[in-house]
Amino acid sequence: MSAEQSTEYLSPRALRQHFDLPECGREICDPATQEIVGWAPQPDAKDVDQAVSVARNAQKKWAERAGSERCDILMQIADAIEQQAESLAQLLSREQGKPLNGPNARFEVQACIDWLRATASFKLEPETLFDDDSGKAVMYYRPVGVVGAIGPWNWPMMISIWQIAPSLRMGNAVVLKPSEYTPLSVLALAHVINSVLPEGLLQVVAGEREVGEAISTHSGIDKIMFTGSTQTGKAIIKAAASTLKLTTMELGGNDPGIVLDDANPTAIAADLFWGAFINTGQTCACLKRLYVHDSIYEDVCEELKRFAQTIPMGPGLNESNLLGPLQNAQQLNIVKRLVEAAKDSGARVLMGGELPQDNQAGYFYPTTLVADIDNNNPLVTEEQFGPVLPIIRYHTLDQAIEWANSLPVGLGSSVWTPDPERAQAVAQQLEAGTTWINKHGQVDPRMPFGGIKQSGQGVEFGIEGLKQVALQHVIHH
Ligand code: NAD
User: Which residues does the UniProt record annotate as the domain Aldehyde dehydrogenase (predicted)?
Assistant: First the structure.
């Protein structure tokens, strides 16, 4: 039976009732259809005070519980999300715009479940540093207290879980501010989490920028986990300095991919495409500029185009769509501006690049591939964060590596070649938190993930991620 025949689609009203979401406040519309999905609450700095006070109280008892008990609760939260997965995915699709299928809404909800289970399974025991004639020293990992989490609109549920799961696991409470563009997805997720979690440990204050600012400066918050733009990250670090908070920063990227001259264009086309167009290009660590050797340049362009033409774009609740709209008008304007800059420079548009005359109601921009573009064009040097990929021709590998490293950001990167030794040699020279070989953007809860340069500080996931939401305490006998 196809998913379409078996799926019941809940109306926005039914979803609001199901997840106990507000019936008044700031209007939130579906970016694909402009239909009202619901209303966001309008909290302010006082609500942050209240949330912090509740979280601080709840955190004390939580920290006293055994780590294994906290892990059991994370597992129960994963089960609760699994039971609500389809309704969560439908709400996410309606609010964020991403289709239900493909690497989109259902995939995102499944990632929440997977990350919770993985985070609960990591072992982080006290470490004996030495135990000899000079004495014994043991390092313990203590909770930091209350974590302030601030998130973006592109993967609102999954990124919230990336912040919540390790924080809770290590004995912290969380005060979370979702993006003002996607508050309902996070409120619904928190509703499910809080049906399992002891009261007070997860507080969502779904406000706008002022709420983020209040969290960044609040004396009752010990650590900020932030995912969003580099510009906002810098503002938060400045604000957090007033109380010397710890910070983990997952910021913007402009990931390069380098296709070597021995790659097979037909074999890599699908993975290249999804490396760039996952979540309609609105992904921090997706392929945003592709460097292709001159000898196979035309073939790679042709194969990418051939594959891209088979991937349907449209409203999220249509089961056949795999690409959706931009999430908001502001992001659509950024994408339009960058493609216009490319066209003005004489770059060759292989497909897309124009809004259709009969443009749909939503913030759609067609899948766009741009060839013969200079490395210094704004579409290459700025983060487009949309369904557009510039493809740059290179002649020598040194030149490609230099271009790949030439920007002040360094989140992900990729190398495409069937030769593992060549891949390794190039990967070693790339300035990025992660380099993938023959794929791009495949995060894994066991691999620490983070950016270098202006893409961030610190890492998430794995044991290293747990350490970021803990304080190291050495006891020396
Ligand atoms: P954004 O920086 O505009 O907003 C992110 C969050 O910060 C929102 O909740 C917003 O309300 C809040 N905020 C804004 N100004 C603030 C301030 N002065 N103080 C405190 N909070 C403030 O980012 P966005 O547009 O929502 O997300 C897109 C960006 O996020 C892209 O650059 C993308 O690359 C990046 N991103 C990075 C990662 C990663 O893991 N590195 C993941 C996803 C997105």
Answer: 27-469
